[in-house]
Amino acid sequence: MNFLDRILDNKKAVIEEAKKTLPFEELKELVAGKGRSADLRRALERRPDESIRVIAEIKRSSPSKGVIAHSIDPASVASDYRDGGVSAISVLTENSYFKGTGEDLRSVRKAVPAMPLLRKDFIISQYQIYESLLLGADAVLLIVAALEKPELMELTSTAAECGLDCLVEVHHEKELDAAIAAGADIVGVNNRDLTTFQVSPEVSVRLSKLIPSEVISVCESGITDLDALESASRLGYHAALIGEHFMRAKDRVTEVKRFTSARAVVPERRMGKG
């Protein structure tokens, strides 16, 4: 069993336990009338002559790198990211393998009430979509590799009903086709293989040529310096998601500003503003 399969098996059990504490129907009642605080898609829009947008991630740990940041205060990190000029913040809430929690997202929402927040987790159930709204997310991550096509369609539809944006993550051409078929208008290309956790920048290079210009595109994983950021910009990505590099920075605000103030690089492919 590979990494992704183990994570998904565990996630199914976690969801069933959550339902015992807060049944699905009660969860729906709690979020009735509740909407998102910010618009992720609009925050990531970029004209070809503008700098690439930055999504900064709050990430405590990972299966491949172990503990990334000890004893962090998610609210403080979020404030650093806001002060550094990021366009959005991603909060990892998966606990068993990444040591994140739903409370991390709650505290970040309170700290940066106007900032677009992406809940990054292994979302495989409608329950998690409603839960994300309750925690304060504006958008959710949907990983094509973790979902069958009918599930992807169902979760995309549920998110839309809840007023949440979806960042639909892909790793190869067939997954990109599935994302577009499901109506994804924000697509994340992850250079990290979730079955092995190995990173290959070639993935974002190859798939960049296939993403429709009207779709907001996000380059994920492996961006640790300005050269990599400029490469993503040149490939036509609207945004880059950066986690580990910022989490390890000694002066987080200064390091984030280096990336958010990077020079504009004209894309080599046609891209729309969205």
Descriptive overview:
There is one protein chain. With 274 residues, the chain is α/β, with parallel strands linked by helices. The chain has one domain (3-32, 40-260): TIM Barrel (Alpha-Beta Barrel), CATH 3.20.20.70. The chain is 42% helix and 16% strand. It has an 8-stranded parallel barrel, surrounded by 8 helices. The protein has a two-stranded antiparallel sheet with strand order 2-3. Strand 6, helix 7 and strand 7 form a beta-alpha-beta unit. The model has no long low-confidence stretch (mean pLDDT 95).
Low-confidence stretches: none
Overall tally of structural domains: 1
- Beta-strand percentage? 15-25%
Number of helices: 12
Give the termini distance in whole angstroms. Answer: 39 Å
Q: Structural class, please?
A: alpha/beta
Number of strands: 10
CATH domain fold name: TIM Barrel
CATH level 4 superfamily: Aldolase class I
CATH architecture descriptor: Alpha-Beta Barrel
- Supply Rg: 17 Å
Mean pLDDT equals 95
Largest sheet: 8 strands, parallel, barrel
CATH class reads Alpha Beta
> Strand sequence of the main sheet, in spatial order?
1-4-5-6-7-8-9-10
Q: How much helical structure, as a percent, in the residues?
A: 40-55%
Order of helices and strands: HHHEEEHEHEHEHEHEHEHEHH
Label the overall shape: globular
